[in-house]
Design brief:
Layout lengths: L25 H15 L3 E5 L5 H8 L4 E6 L2 H13 L6 E5 L2 H4 L7 E4 L9 H10 L4 E6 L8 E2 L2 E9 L2 E8 L3
Parallel strand pairs: 1-2, 1-4, 2-3, 4-5
Antiparallel strand pairs: 5-8, 6-7, 7-8
């Protein structure tokens, strides 16, 4: 696994062994950040269910001012910490070992990315609903294309879906009243 673009382009990242994380493929991360290019500079980026931290680190590499990483796994937290230290990004990162639902009300970010591991697929709906109660400017959800997410979650509306292989990115923005 590596950083795709920006300041840390081509730098290698450590990964978490085993099936407890669902890494975002390099090609999908490249597509995601090509879409986010006009919005990423200076933003606070939240990487929920962070796994290796690759998505949040990619955001930092491409100009996000800060990244918030939330992950339950102790092993994944260790790997994220090592990846951040290797790139000298620790000062621009907030790392929390917690369940996403417990920490979500305290997270303030301009872009929120979520991709629960396979074992936590039941998290999609309640987390989107919580995010929709006080929506950030943009929420991106990585999921299996066969998983149909709600089009509207409280005050969030799905505005775009990008399918790539066995992955899908659904983009949610606050509903315009």
């Amino acid at each position: 696994m590596r950083v795709i673009g920006g300041e840390f382009r081509s730098r290698s990242l450590k990964s978490v062994p085993g099936p407890d994380t669902r890494p975002t493929p390099d090609r999908l991360r490249e597509s995601l950040f090509n879409i986010l290019a006009p919005r990423i500079k200076g933003v606070v980026f939240a990487d929920l269910y962070a796994g290796t931290g690759a998505v949040g680190i990619e955001a930092l590499s491409r100009g996000a001012s800060r990244a918030i990483f939330v992950e339950q796994s102790r092993e994944a937290i260790r790997v994220i910490r090592e990846n951040l230290a290797a790139l000298h990004l620790t000062a621009r990162a907030q790392l929390s070992q917690s369940s996403v639902r417990a920490l979500l009300p305290k997270i303030q970010a301009g872009i929120v990315f979520l991709d629960p591991p396979y074992a936590l697929e039941a998290e999609y709906a309640p987390v989107l609903e919580l995010l929709g109660q006080q929506p950030p400017p943009l929420v991106i959800v990585q999921h299996d294309p066969r998983l149909k997410l709600e089009e509207v979650c409280s005050l969030l509306r799905c505005t775009r879906i990008v399918k790539q292989g066995s992955n899908c990115l659904s983009f949610y923005e606050p509903e315009r009243l």
